[in-house]
Amino acid sequence: MATVATIVAIILGPILAIQVQKIIERLTQKRDEKRRVFMTLLTTRGRGLAPEHVQALNMIHFFFSGKRKKDQAVVEAWDLYRDHLFSRTEPPKPPANGEVSEADRIDFQNRVRTWLEKADDLLCNLLGKMAKSLRYHFPDLWLKKGAYTPQAYGELEEDQRAILHGLAEVLLGIRSFPMKVSEFPVNEEANKALMQFLQGKQPLPVRMEGSFEDSDKAGKANESNEA
Q1: How far is Cα 85 from Cα 49, in angstroms, rounded to an integer?
Q2: CA geometry: angle at 111 spanning 107 and 112, to 5°?
Q3: Separation of CA 104 from chain center
Q4: Which of 46, 60, 166, 189 has the fewest C-beta atoms under 10 angstroms from its C-beta?
Q5: CA-to-CA distance for 11 and 79, rounded, in angstroms?
Q6: Whose CA is closest to 52, among 60, 40, 42?
Q7: Domain boundary assignment for the chain
């Protein structure tokens, strides 16, 4: 029996070792992918419109779906965040004969600000669940406000958001397009001629199209038609 067991161990040993190595490599690769998604979201949490941020969000279900409770908590947190992102802050409807009132416009802006604050909280919650799944320990306050974004990036994103919001409000009739007329084009010669005509110093030039013969023929044609 000992000889048979030895032979079986010699044959199966390398095979089992290879299988175990493959399992370890697969688990390591999956953890690396989870870490990559987490680090992408962590480093771009101050730029929610960045393409790499959106791409990482859409990969959560693929890498964190599993039986582990911590992974399930990550998926649940992402579902809550995604549902909020899909929710819309409905703008006020303008009346048929005018623009939206100032009070309604301010109320809409406040609701948008509240929506953005809740989105930040849900993203922070998602990052916290991902950190626990990967055995990292980060304070919630650091996850929410610890991101460094150059001022130029922040200003650019805020400007883009303000432009999009402004155009949307104009198209929806919430506000009008601001216009300011500083001056009208002036033709000095035309103004001078008009003043001289009004003062009786210059006749009004008149130009007639066609000739008198054409007019006489047209009149005769009309008379014959009436007859």
Answers
A1: 12
A2: 120
A3: 23
A4: 189
A5: 48
A6: 40
A7: 15-171, 190-226
Residues 74, 76, 79, CA angle at the centre, nearest 5°? 110
**Three state DSSP letters for the chain:** CHHHHHHHHHHHHHHHHHHHHHHHHHHHHHHHHHHHHHHHHHHCCCCCCCHHHHHHHHCHHHHHCCCCHHHHHHHHHHHHHHHHHHCCCCCCCCCCCCCCCHHHHHHHHHHHHHHHHHHHHHHHHHHHHHHHHCCCCCCHHHHHHCCCCCHHHHHHHHHHHHHHHHHHHHHCCCCCCCCCCCCCCCCHHHHHHHHHHHCCCCCCCCCCCCCHHHHHHHHHHHHHHHC
pTM value is 0.58
**In this predicted structure, which of 47-56, 64-73, 135-144, 175-184 has the lowest mean pLDDT?**
175-184
Residues in the chain: 227
Decide if pLDDT at 150 tops 70: no
Please determine, for residue 47, whether its predicted confidence score (pLDDT) is greater than 90.
no
**How far apart are alpha carbons 146 and 140 in whole angstroms?**
9
How high is the pLDDT of residue 49?
79
* Contacting residues for 45 by C-beta, under 8 A, at least 6 apart: 53, 123, 127, 143, 147
User: Residue 102: pLDDT band by 50, 70, 90 thresholds?
Assistant: confident
Q: Are 127 and 42 in contact (CB under 8 A)?
A: yes
